[in-house]
Write a structure and sequence with these properties.
With about 425 residues, the protein is α+β, with helices and mostly antiparallel strands. Helices cover about 60% and strands about 15% of the residues. The chain contains nine helices and eleven strands. The protein has helices at about 1-55, 65-70, 115-165, 180-230, 235-265, 275-290, 310-330, 355-360, 375-385; strands at about 75-80, 85, 95-105, 105-115, 270-275, 295-300, 305-310, 335-340, 345-350, 390-395, 400-410. Helix 1 (about 1-55) runs antiparallel to helix 3, helix 3 runs parallel beside helix 4 and helix 6 (about 275-290) packs parallel to helix 7 (about 310-330). Mean pLDDT is about 80; it is low at about 415-420. It is a multi-pass membrane protein. This is Signal transduction histidine-protein kinase/phosphatase MprB. Its EC number is 2.7.13.3.
């Protein structure tokens, strides 16, 4: 590419120099010849005036004086009343430049050697050629500088892209002072950040899976060993079998949570949804479980709200909060929906003892559970809400009150969440 840029810029420079230099040379040659002819004609006119004046004053005309006054000239005087006069040395016929001045009494002819004019022409042409070569030299220098300024950043961008392809997802932060190349570098940096984020999520998913699946699998293995050991005792087999089923259900729940989070991290895209529809569906789904626990769910606040989120993501986040309240809370669960200037807010609160002080600041951390849970529920719920551009916060410890902050539908035009690879 550098060679192509150099050849293209040099070609443009040569064409420009030729288009300007050749006409300039022609004009200079013509001007020099015209100037020489004008000077000869002026000399002939002055001589004719001087000769006529001398004749009128009856003075003699000295050829030697004419030769002294007009060196390098060949002068011929043909005036009435005076014999023809010649002064100077006549140049060769093929190199002779001659101009005349005429009057009623005669004429004067002045000649010079054209070699003198050609010498001046050559000097001017040499100067023009030198200027042309200097211009070409400057063009070559500019072409080299420009090609380096363009090709080196492109080579650097190619190395960055190759590094991204090999899995090294570090943004380079390189900028080159060329707007188009800087935009490409910015896109590559954003891609590197997204790739790094995806790789981090993949590693995080693998870590979560390995950590969270180990405990249920270990418990299930122990139950199966007990069943094998007590094969002749139906009561024990039944008891251990029921415990194994519980372990399997817990294992299934952990797997579902992990896979749902992984799918959302790759494909989530917030859109305008009906908040009431999601909340009504969750109340209908969880009401039987709360009724069996002799508790209830109450939905209050503003109705008809719309927010930017995903139906599945909001459903899962609300379900996680309701499940936590069912397991760890008490009394009536109140879901309150409000609309503020900045957000659509969904608060989930119960009347239980709340969250212990030692867990208040760590409730959203991974593997932190108050009573034997997986430690993933609130963590995944918060990441799901964040993926939709919202927030999940604990706003009160006692009684436990969680709030989901979602964006208004009007915010979609100026802020859009993009998840997953570009």
């Amino acid at each position: 590419m550098r060679r192509r840029l150099l050849s293209s810029m040099l070609l443009v420079a040569v064409i420009a120099v030729l288009l300007l230099g050749v006409p300039l040379g022609v004009v200079v040659v013509r001007l020099i010849h015209d100037e020489a002819a004008t000077e000869l004609h002026s000399e002939a006119t002055r001589l004719l005036i001087g000769v006529e004046y001398s004749i009128s004053q009856e003075q003699s005309i000295d050829p030697k004086q004419l030769e002294k006054n007009y060196p390098d000239r060949y002068i011929q005087v043909f005036v009435q009343g005076v014999a023809p006069i010649a002064a100077g040395t006549a140049p060769p016929a093929h190199r002779q430049m001659t101009e005349e001045a005429r009057s009623e009494n005669g004429y004067v002819r002045v000649s010079q050697d054209a070699a003198q004019v050609q010498q001046g022409v050559r000097a001017r042409l040499v100067l023009i050629v030198a200027l042309i070569l200097a211009a070409l030299g400057v063009a070559v220098g500019l072409a080299i500088v420009t090609s380096l300024r363009l090709t080196l950043p492109l080579q650097d961008l190619a190395r960055i892209a190759e590094r991204l392809g090999s899995g090294d997802a570090r943004p380079s932060r390189h900028r080159y002072g060329i707007p188009e190349l800087d935009r490409v570098a910015q896109v590559l940096d954003r891609s590197a950040v997204r790739i790094a984020d995806l790789l981090g999520r993949e590693r995080e998913f693998a870590t979560d899976a390995s950590h969270q699946l180990r405990t249920p699998l270990t418990g299930l293995n122990m139950r199966l060993e007990e069943i094998v050991a007590a094969a002749g005792e139906p009561a024990i087999v039944r008891e251990e079998g029921e415990a194994a089923i519980v372990q399997v259900e817990r294992l299934t729940a952990v797997i579902d949570e992990l896979l749902a989070a992984a799918r959302r991290q790759r494909h989530a895209q917030a859109e305008a949804i009906d908040v009431d529809q999601v909340l009504d569906q969750q109340v209908t789904e969880w009401e039987p479980a709360f009724r069996r626990a002799q508790r209830s769910i109450k939905l209050v606040g503003s109705r008809g709200l719309r927010a930017l989120a995903t139906t599945g993501g909001l459903s899962q986040a609300v379900a996680t909060l309701l499940e936590n309240s069912l397991q760890h809370g008490g009394g009536t669960v109140t879901i309150t929906t409000t609309s503020t200037e900045k957000s659509i807010v969904i608060e989930v609160a119960d009347q239980g003892p709340g969250i212990p002080e030692e867990l208040g600041g760590r409730v959203f951390e991974r593997n932190v559970s108050g009573a034997g849970g997986t430690g993933l529920g609130l963590t995944l719920a918060r990441s799901i809400v964040a993926a939709d551009g919202g927030r999940l916060e604990l706003i009160k410890r006692r009684p436990a009150t969680f709030a989901i902050f979602l964006r208004h539908v009007e915010d979609d035009a100026r802020y859009r969440v993009v998840s997953g690879p570009a």
